[in-house]
Amino acid sequence: MTSGTEEEQLAQIKEWWQRNGKPLLMGGALALVLVFGWQFWQKHQLNQAQSASTIYQQLLNAALEEGKADTAEISRLGNLLQKEFAGSHYAQYGSLFVAKVAVESGRLDEAATELQAVLDKPADKTLEELARQRLARILAAQDKAEEGLALLEGDAVEAFAASREELRGDLLVKLERPDEAHAAYSKAKELLSQDAAIGGLQLKLDDLARGEA
After folding, report:
1. Which of 12, 15, 108, 213 is the least crowded, having the fewest Cβ atoms under 10 Å away?
2. In sequence order, what DSSP letters do the residues of 85-142 get, joined into one string?
């Protein structure tokens, strides 16, 4: 009886293994692949971030260097960030600096192209708003204030709400719409602390008031 029972148990074990052994082995192998794959991905991401950070720092050094900026080097590093790390925060902040240098060199079309690329697919809300406001200023400088004003429709994230309203006011002044400009400046003032509102913004309001007098 004992022998028969053992044979039955062995048969059951073999049957169970035939049904479940291969899936268990495959599941274990898959788990190992996932673990090592995740570790590889994390290491790859870290290496990518470090590489992007290094190039971005080089771009900053070139853009903020005392004296005349090396525009060719800035352009090269900006293009490298776009090629190797397109869509990343480093690439898009790099585009902001490339645009800044382009503006300082009088190349407004080039600056507008850089900023529009960020605005089309921003990495986050901060980058979107920075690109939006800077592009609006460039459009105004190109005598396209109406287009710039259109970019500023709607609400900005809280941290940039005051600067957007002040910029709207600047563009409305350029378009000779003083009442609307005054309303925009007043709204910007309301969004700022009392200390922050005293300064350039108040001067703009005062200038409009003198113009109306």
Report:
1. 213
2. HTTSHHHHHHHHHHHHHHHHTT-HHHHHHHHHHHHHS-SSHHHHHHHHHHHHHHHHHT
The predicted pLDDT at position 24 comes to: 60
Residue with tokens 């590489």: 51
Q: In whole angstroms, what is the distance from residue 97 CA to residue 75 CA?
A: 10
Q: How far apart are the first and last CA of the chain?
A: 115
The single-letter DSSP state of residue 64 is S
What's the CA gap between 202 and 208, in Å, rounded? Answer: 10
CB 174 within 8 A of CB 145: yes
DSSP state of 199: T
Q: Is the pLDDT of residue 34 over 50?
A: yes
pTM above the 0.70 mark? yes
Amino acid at 103: V
Structure tokens at 32: 């190992």
Most confident among 23-27, 64-68, 155-159, 191-195 (mean pLDDT): 155-159
